[in-house]
Amino acid sequence: MKRRTVVQTSLAAGLVAGMVALNLSEDDPPSLSKDAPWRPTNWPFPRDAWPQGRAWRRGTLEVYLRPKLGFCGNCETGVTTDEEVDRVTDVDLLDQRFAPVKEGLAVRIGALSGRARLYRYELANGTTRHVEGIAVSQKCDLVIAVIAGNLVDESERTSAYRHLESSTVQDWISQALGGR
Question: Domain of life of the organism in this record (predicted)?
Answer without folding.
Answer: Bacteria
